[in-house]
């Protein structure tokens, strides 16, 4: 007993969520990179503005500049600082070393901007840790805003896949609820077009099963119909104490009937139809030799001076078709049987007859027939299975059958 197997719904759900999740992750990472870049630019612009404002304020104020360190905001005294100094005087202590020149620089985890005026030097510094904390707060707010959208997206994808796969589950449920003898076609109503080949293939399979069931039923009915009379005759002869040797012809006839019935059953079921190759000329020569041994059979075979005729057909099926065609002509004809094979793979079977129509129905026989009425049924079934064309004409005291193998 096998397990339930994998689920299309959950596989599609996982794949879709994985793709969408990777897309969202990439978007968030790009957004964070862009946010970090823009925030750093804003912080640098703020530092430049503070430096210009402080330098202008100090130089325009009366009195000398007093070296000192000032916090840019009361709550962040140790993370955003401004150092004021004068050339030639001692510098106030700061967490960063004095820059060598004006402009931006990095030192000891600080971002520093130095600007020199006529009588003062301004250094504006921001802690890198403070900048990262600000970025983290902005990113957290972004994620908090995006998270509901992600959850909504997951819910929408799950619901959409469930609705999309609902017809598939309905189809599986309908098939599983069928009775064992229900071989009716599966309707494609409500099925997406991607699954229509599946329903069409299933319908072809069901039709094939139904054909096999019908062939089995016909075989059983035909066997019961055809074997009843010879079996009863043999039983009667043996019960009456007659010569057992007299039952031999009856047993031969019974064997022939069984052989024909099996051929009909196999041809209807399509059993044993391979792809060949088959040497049609060799098969015909063997059948002609076997038929010529029968007493009272006049036969003429024109092989067109060919050495062989190889075709992509199953040799057993070809032999059965030709055997039934020749036997049917012998059983229903009353003169010389003529067979002509051409290089174009066309076989003509012609013989004189007193009939005026072919009897093609199973067990149908003409008034002068010695057969059992299955030959042409077997020929028609095999020809249809192998794609062979069979044309039959009768008139003017002659019956003609033309078989086109290609």
Helix amount, in percent? 40-55%
Distance between the termini: 48 Å
Write down the overall mean pLDDT: 79
Largest sheet: 5 strands, antiparallel
- Counted by DSSP, the helix tally is 7
Q: Ranges with pLDDT <50 over ≥5 residues?
A: 359-367
Instruction: Please state the structural category.
Output: alpha+beta
Overview of this structure, please?
Helix 1 (8-60) runs antiparallel to helix 2 (128-176) and helix 4 (247-269) packs parallel to helix 7. This protein is an alpha+beta fold. The strands form three sheets. Strands 1-2-5-4-3 form a five-stranded antiparallel beta sheet. The chain has seven helices and twelve strands. Helices cover 52% and strands 16% of the residues. 18% of the residues are buried. A hairpin with a 4-residue loop joins strand 9 (337-341) and strand 10 (346-352).
Would you kindly provide a brief summary of this structure?
It contains seven helices and twelve strands.
Question: Topology of this protein?
Answer:
Elements: H1 8-60, E1 68-71, E2 80-85, E3 103-107, E4 110-116, E5 121-127, H2 128-176, H3 196-239, H4 247-269, E6 278-279, H5 280-292, E7 299-302, E8 310-311, H6 315-332, E9 337-341, E10 346-352, H7 375-386, E11 389-395, E12 398-404
Parallel strand pairs: 7-9
Antiparallel strand pairs: 1-2, 2-5, 3-4, 4-5, 6-8, 9-10, 10-12, 11-12
Helix pairs in contact: 1-2, 3-4, 4-7, 5-6, 6-7
